[in-house]
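User: Please predict the structure of the protein below. I'd like the answer in structure-token form so I can feed it into my own downstream comparison script.

Assistant: Understood. Taking the following sequence of 294 residues as input:
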Amino acid sequence: PTGRTTIAGNLTMGNGTNTSVGITAASNSSTVSVTGNLAISANTTFTAHASNTTTVTGSWTNSGTFTHSSGTVLFNATATGKTITAGGSSFSTLTFNGTGGGWALQDATTVASVLTITAGTLDAGSVTLTLSGTTGTPFSNAGTFTASTSTVAYTGNNAGGNTTVVGTTYYSLTLNNGSETYALGGDTTVANVLTITAGTLNASSRTITLSGTTGTPFSNSGTFTASTSTVSYTGNNSGGNTTVASVTYNNLTLNNSSETYVLAAATTVSNDLTITAGILDTVSGQNYGLTVGG
């Protein structure tokens, strides 16, 4: 068909038995709109349109192959309980826009351009959500993002400048591109572990709250640029102490009355060190130096 194809109900592509089933919206200039669930069966490939939008009101289940063609997939439910199973295929532009809608990721999901939550709630569950977009703004959130126990990994490189990391609450947050500077777009909480695998995190003037309880809530193999930020460690490792990563901080705050914080190595705080609650132990172990400039 040419133009818009609307399915009033559920759409299942293929039957999982026949091999090499191909369904292509691109060659027919078709916008696909499904008012129920969309399922791509095993041995089936669905190729989306490069410039039009595939709209789904229900859930998405991919057991075959989805080729995004740099197009947009829009979920517009206004009810909760919808699920997204990527099945190993990436999305290009992925948008959630339904007041009252709720979607839960079921498996590892990659968004190659932009993830947008315009309205509704996206629950990342326990999966890895990879944002590999190169636009500089791979994640736009005007709705609700629920991190649960997920990992969000920013891996894109914006050739025209920095990549903005949305200010929200993450469970685990990973930055991983040696050519990129990631800049915080707002105050950010990481409830488990913040990892700079490669690249630079510029914290700007934001507050980063590290509430992880693993004992190592901040792992840095890249570069951390404090700018005028505040980094606040608030977690309590019930199995031992919490290690303060060896970077140069602007403001450093320690705030958990049940915790002892220890230095990973010699550490510099260029402005203020605040121990709101808890203990900072600089003597035990290696007796690392602490330089405070505030």
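That's the full token string. The mean pLDDT is 94.
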